[in-house]
Here is the input.
Amino acid sequence: MMKMLLLLLGCCGLVLSDQNQSAPRDQRVFPVLSINYDYVQMPFEVSLWILLASLMKLGFHLIPRLSTVVPESCLLIVVGLLVGGLIRVMGKRPPVLDSQLFFLCLLPPIILDAGYFLPLRPFTENAGSILTFAVLGTLWNTFFTGALLYICRPAALDLLPCLLFGSIVSAVDPVAVLAVFEEIHINELLHILVFGESLLNDAVTVVLYHLFEEFAHTGEVTAGDVFLGVVCFFVVALGGVLVGGVYGVLAAFTSRFTAHTRVIEPLFVFLYSYMAYLSAEVFHLSGIMALIACGVVMRPYVEANISHKSYTTIKYFLKMWSSVSETLIFIFLGVSTVAGPHAWNWTFVTITILLCLLSRVLGVVGLTFIINKYRMVKLSGKDQFIVAYGGLRGAIAFSLAFLLSNDDFPMKDMFLTAIITVIFFTVFVQGMTIRPLVDLLAVKKRKESKCSINEEIHTQFLEHLLAGIEGVCGHYGHHHWRDKLNRFNKRYIKRCLIGGERSQEPQLVSFYNKMELKQAMMLLESNSSSNLSTVTAAAPRQRSRKTLNISKEREEEIRKILRANLQKTRQRLRSYSRHTLMPDAEDDWSETRLKKQREEMERRMSHFLTVPAPPVRKLESGERLRSGSFFFSERVSAGDESIRRKPSVVKFSLEEKKPHRGPEHLLEEDEELIHHRP
Amino acid sequence: MGASQSGRAHTFRDLADKTGFSIEQINNLHNRFTYLTQDEDTLRREHLENISDLALNPIRRQIIEAFFDKRNLGEKEKGSLQEIGFQEFVTVLSFFRPPKPRIADEEMRNIKKEKLRFLFNMHDTDNDGVITLDEYRRVVEELLSSYETIGAETAKAISDAAMLEVASVTVGQMGPDEFYEGITFEQFTQILRNLEIETKMNIHFWNLDTRTVQCGK
Here is the structure.
C-alpha cells in the first residue's frame, strides 16, 4: 500500500520534472512545488521499513489474545510473507535479506544487548555445560547431518557440500532463541544453557563454514588441513574474546574520565562495542564472541563510572535497537522467502528436517549424560527435552547460505529452500508449541526476584563460606578461583578502571545504595503526600493507612514539609536542554566534598527498628516512639549525581492513639535512631 | 599396624554410613586431617588458623568457630569445644556434601533445613536461638571488613535495613507495644527460601588432598 503511494508520488515527480525540462527557458514557470524523490530514496525507504516493522509490533500487542498464543517471531514472518507477496503482486522484485546488511547492521545490536545484560553468575556457573553444548554439540550436529545427507543421497551431492550444509543448518540461532525464550519465562538455568549455547556456537560455525567453503573451492582435503582447521577454531574463538576484552577495557578506561561530559557516555559504550565487532570481523574472528566479551568485560566498570541517566539511556537504547533489529530480521526473512529463487526438492527438505531434529535430540541426550557426571545440579529429562526442543534455527543460517557463491555451489538454491523450510519449521512449530509444553511438563519458571538485601548478604556470605571450606579441605575448586579473581579484580583492576572513590566500594554497599535509590524513586513517583511508607520494598501499605489517625492540620503541616523537600528533587528531574545539562551544579562538586556529603548522609539515615538494643540515645521525655511510627528518609547514593536532596532528614512519628500531640513530633535527628521500650 | 588399619577401615565405614560420604572421600579427608593437624589426633583452632588460603577470608573467624560449635556436631548442648577429632571434622564437612541426584522432595527439604540450620548457627553466636540486631550487624561488618574505607555506620545501616526487611516480611503488622526480638530460625528459613540453599551450599569433594592428586568421585 505504501509502496503504491510511493510509486504514485514518484510518477508525479517524473511528470512534473519532465514538464519543467521540456518547456523553453524563458517561459519556465517557477516550480512552487516540485517532487524530487531520488534525493531521499534510500533513507526514506529504510525509515519506511523500520516504521512498518514497529507499527506491526505495536499492532500485535493491541490484539488481545494473539501475543499469548503465537510468539512474535511467527507473526512477523507472516507479515513479511504478506508484504513480500504484495510487492510481487505489484510486479516489482522484493528485496532479499542482504547478508552484509544483516551481519553488519541488524545482528550487532541484538548480540550487544544480550552480551551487556548477560547474567554473569549463572553463565560462569554453567560455563562448562554451555561450552560442551556449543562446541561438541555443534560439531556433532554438523557431522551427523552432513554424513547422513551424503549417505542417503537425496540429491547426489558430494561430501563437502553436505558437510557445509550441515554446518550452516546445525547452529542454534541466538535471535530466534531470544525471541521465543523471552516470552516463556523459563527458569534461569535452562535459559542460560540454551541461550549461552546459541551465542558461543558462533565460533564453531564460523570456522566450519570457512573451512568447508575453502575446501570446496580448492577441491581436496589433506590431514594437515584438518589440523589447521582445529588450530583455526582456537584462534577464532580466543582471538574474538581477546579483541572484545581489549575493547572492553578501553571502554571502561574511557568511562573513568567522562565525569564532565555525561551526555556522550552511552555513545562510548556503543561505539567501542561496535568497533570490537567490526575489528573481529576484519580478521574473520568470531564477531559475536568479541561483542559478548566486550560487553561482559566493560559492564561492571562502566556502570560504576557513569551516571544514572546514562545507564538508563544505554539500557533503553540497547533494548530499542535490538527490538527493532529483531523485528526487521523476521520481516525480511518472510520477504526473502517470497523473493528468493527456490528449488524445491521434497526428499532433501524432509530428510534435512528429520536429521536436524534427530541429531539435536541425540546430541543433547548424549552430552547431558557426560556432563551430568561433573555437574552438581544434574539436568533432568525434562531439562534435556527443553534444551533439545529449544534449539531453533534462524536468520544467521539463512544469511550464511546466501553468502555462498553460485559457482562453487550450484545447488545453492536448493540449500536456501531447505534452510528456509527448517527455519520456518523450528520457529513456527517449535516456537508455538514450546509454551504449552513448558506448562504441560511443569518446568520451573523464572522466579520474580525482588531485590532483597538479606538474600544479597547471604549470597556474599555463602561465597566466602564456600571458599573458606574449600580452603580447609585443600580443594582448589570453583569457589576458590572465583575468590582469587575477585580479590585480584579488587586490588588491581578496579583501581585503574573506576574513577574516584567508587573503586573502593564493595558490592554489598553498591547494591544497598541502588536499592535505596530505587525505593526513593518509587516514593517520588507515587504521590508521596498521601503515601507514607517505610524504607523497605516489602513494607505493607496497610500499616501507613491504619495508623494515620491524625488531625487535619497536622496532616497539612506534614504535607507541606514533604512537598517542599520533594519539589527540590522534582526540579532536578525535569528534562534539560542539551546545553544546560552540562554545567550541572552537582557535577562541580569536588571529590572531597562528595565524600563528606556521603558520610554525612549515611549518618543521617533513619530506620525503623523496634529491636531491643543497648540504648544508643535516650529520647527526650515526652516523646514516645512506638512500633506504629515510621520515617521518611531522603538518601543520597554517591553514584548518582542527578538526584540530590537537601541533607536534612525529616522524620516524624505518629502516635496511634494520641492524635493531639503537637509539632514536637516532627523531629530533626542527626543520627539513626534505634528506639527501645521507654 | 595391621590391626589398627582394619580398625580404622571399620570406623571409616561407620562414618561413611553416617555422613553419606564414600569410603574414598573419607580416606581423602583423613589425609587432609592428618596434614592439617601435623599428624596429631585432634584438631585445634590454631591448626585451622594456619591455613594460608583462609587468611584473606573476611569471615574466617566464623568458619573456624563453626567447626568447634557443639550444635553442628549433633549434640543437644550448646557451647563450643576446644578441640575436635576426625569424626567431628567429617560431620561438619558433611553439611556441604551435594545431595544425591534422585532423592525425594521430603528428604530434599530436610537437607535444606539442615544447611540453613548450619548458617543460622554461624550467625547466632550467643546460642539463644535468635539472631539479634547486634549479631547481624557483626556479620555485615565482617563481610565488609576487607574494605578499609567503609565505616562502621554503613554496616550498621545495611544490617538495620536487613532486619527491617525480615521484620516486615515475616511479622507484617505489629501491635503498638510489640518488639521485634530478632530473627528466629523459622523466619530465617522463610526469608532465604528463594536462595536455593540445597543446590548452592555445596562443594565438590574431589581432588581433596593437595599432596596426592586423586580423581575420586
In short: The CA atoms of residues 181 and 191 of chain A lie 7 Å apart. Confidence is low (pLDDT under 50) at residues 12-23, 529-548, 569-592, 605-678 of chain A. Chain A touches chain B through 73 residues (CB under 8 Å). Strands of chain A lie at 651-652, 666-667.
